Amino acid sequence: xxxxxxxxxxxxxxxxxxxxxxxxxxxxxxxxxxxxxxxxxxxxxxxxxxxxxxxxxxxxxxxxxxxxxxxxxxxxxxxxxxxxxxxxxxxxxxxxxxxxxxxxxxxxxxxxxxxxxxxxxxxxxxxxxxxxxxxxxxxxxxxxxxxxxxxxxxxxxxxxxxxxxxxxxxxxxxxxxxxxxxxxxxxxxxxxxxxxxxxxxxxxxxxxxxxxxxxxxxxxxxxxxxxxxxxxxxxxxxxxxxxxxxxxxxxxxxxxxxxxxxxxxxxxxxxxxxxxxxxxxxxxxxxxxxxxxxxxxxxxxxxxxxxxxxxx
Length: 312
Description:
This protein has helices spanning 2-6, 8-27, 32-58, 76-83, 85-88, 94-115, 122-134, 137-148, 153-160, 176-201, 205-213, 218-229, 231-246, 250-255, 265-274, 279-303. The protein is mainly α. It is found in: Cell membrane.
């Protein structure tokens, strides 16, 4: 024993088999990691892949959601979607949400850049920007119902600056989608703000110091340091913004129920399934939306390759 204590090399060789055996007991035969994945994989299969598979099957039928017999119609539901304008034209409503999403990204990037550096009360402003994302969507919808109602908070603010009778924000078809998209901007900007903030703060400070030595101004730092460093996060946020615009549901459903020209594709899908009992057609509409999102995601992976020049 004294020999082992006096010679570190002998001690290491003596303990090596013990460490190896202990490692083998912990890792088993490579199956231990899979044991921890059984429950998550089971939930993923049962709650995601099986429902999606059923959705594809329902889209090929004329099922009403109640009848145990499902009549197979093949691609008839898909033909109906693309040949009846009233079904597919609601995608134009998504353009309002897409414009709002782009404005949201610009604002989030601006505030994230500004608050990444020394600014007075920056922690307070960070909390103010991110706080709306933590609020329940139903609560936000109810709050903005009072905000946009005739004679409500927004009308009172506009009257204070001399603008009277601006119109019905949720009752006028020319204003309702702008109002709803603006609400979505306020609610979801905090998520993109946090993503951009984390990406910007991960940039090494030495790069900014080198830029200062070279005489770079704030715009040069943003263009040549910040933007290249957060390119992947920008790509992710952009694809999330497009997917969110196409699948807008919560705010218009809570605030207007799709009335006055505010019906989105998802609201129409829900109504088709549960209001008109056309689950087969609604499933086909959901499949179309899924395919569109997957195509946009594939394009994004081409446009925003990773740092090694490969597709993300």
